[in-house]
Design brief:
Length: about 180
C-alpha cells in the first residue's frame, strides 16, 4: 500500500508540469499530458484497491499523507531539474514494483497470503470476471507496472536523445 502511495506522484507531477508548459507555450504535448495523467489515475486505482484489501488503520493513513507529501515535493523539484532523470528513476521504481508484485504472487501461490475474492472496485476497473481473486488483481496490477516502467524509460530515452516529449507520440489508451 505504501508503494502505491508514492507511485501515483510521478505521473501527476509530470502531467501537471507538461500541462503548464503547454499552456505557457501554446503548444501540444504529443499526448504526453494524457499518458502521464492516465498513469497517475491508474496508480491511484492500485492504491484504492489495496486499501480495500488491507483496511489501513488511522496511523497508516497518516503515514501515507506524510510520505506522499515528502515524495511529491522531492519529485517535483527533481522533474524541474531533469525530466530525463525523473523518468528514469520512475522507470526503476516501477521495476521494483514489478519485483514486489512477483513476490506477492509467489506468496499467494504458496498459501502465505489468502487468495481472497477481488474487491468490487478492482473487478469494475479492470473488468475482471465476477469471481476474480486477489491473485487476478495482483497479476493485472503487475502488468500495469510493467507498462508504466516502459513508458517512463521511453520518456527518459527521448530526453536522452536531446528531444522533447512532444516530438514523439505518447503511448496512449493502455486502459
Amino acid at each position: 500500500m505504501m508503494l502505491e502511495t508514492v507511485a501515483a506522484v510521478p505521473g501527476m507531477v509530470g502531467g501537471m508540469l507538461l500541462h503548464l508548459r503547454s499552456l505557457r507555450r501554446f503548444e501540444h504535448s504529443g499526448g504526453w499530458i494524457r499518458a502521464l495523467l492516465e498513469e497517475a489515475e491508474n496508480e491511484r486505482m492500485h492504491l484504492m484497491t489495496f486499501m480495500e484489501v488491507a483496511k489501513p488503520r488511522w496511523y497508516e493513513r497518516a503515514l501515507v499523507i506524510a510520505v506522499q507529501g515528502v515524495f511529491f515535493n522531492a519529485y517535483f523539484l527533481g522533474y524541474l531539474l531533469s525530466p530525463k532523470f525523473a523518468h528514469r528513476v520512475t522507470g526503476y521504481l516501477e521495476e521494483e514494483a514489478i519485483h514486489s508484485y512477483t513476490e506477492f504472487l509467489k506468496d499467494l501461490d504458496a498459501g502465505k497470503i489468502d487468495n481472497v475474492p477481488a474487491p468490487a472496485i478492482a473487478i469494475d476497473y479492470w473488468r475482471l470476471p465476477p469471481d476474480a481473486t486477489l491473485k487476478d488483481v495482483v497479476t493485472v496490477v503487475r502488468a500495469d507496472e510493467a507498462h508504466h516502467r516502459d513508458v517512463n524509460h521511453f520518456a527518459s530515452d527521448i530526453h536522452y536523445q536531446g528531444m522533447e516529449l512532444k516530438e514523439t507520440p505518447a503511448p496512449l489508451d493502455y486502459h
